[in-house]
Hints:
This protein is of the alpha+beta class. Helix content is 23%, strand content 34%.
Amino acid sequence: MEINILEKDDTHMRFLVQGADIPYMNALRRLALSEVPCMAIDEIVILENSSVLQDEIISHRLGLVPLKTDLDSYNLPEDCPCKSEFGCNLCRVTLALDVEAKEGPRTVYSGDLISENPTIKPVSDKIPILKLAKDQRIKLEAYARLGKGRAHAKWQPVSLCTYKYYPKIKISKTCDACGECVDICPRKVLVKKGSKIEVQDLVSCTLCQDCAEACPKEPAAIEVTPEESTFIFNVESTEALPPQRIVEESLKILDKQLKELEGEIKVKKSEKT
Length: 273
């Protein structure tokens, strides 16, 4: 299997995978969604709340605030040596919120959350949590821990995780460059240059076949087919983890699960013999 990165920045990565199949790609996608852990607020103690929002609504909104995650310094609660339901400094982070609207109405933002660990904080300071009228106050303690997306969506480190076949476009010599395929393509994959139709952005092709259907030739002068063992994989992070780290963790988890399955198969075979 060969992997080539097409695009990468702090929140998004797109890469080309050659020599794989659909079950492998789908396993990688599902692991990124449900098994790669990240930090999220899980428990909240409301000390004072004179706002119009109920405690439960505030708790729900805080739980969905993405938090920067440090996988190397913290343990999953079930794997932590403390074995405590309250957690310890190796599996839990405390964030405090204490805001009072003294001079007039104000909005409470995620940036008002003060974390005991500066590296574990909201990915953005501008996520609105609630509004306070004059003389209203919100004071609470929030406890964040690692979790997995299979338990709750707030622990999903990705906002987008998809894959598709790598497209293959063939334009035959019967093409008269009428431009119908160029005009109808929603992704602007094709371009007309003089008396020719050329591919200008192959990666953006979604294999929708609109270009082939719009071609007035019979049979169509353009053919769009998928490369059976080549895929384009897209990962968009919530910024809790870098996209590359998400893919790396997914591969580690997949490798571990395959080894466990192999071990179970060997045990079953030895029991039969």
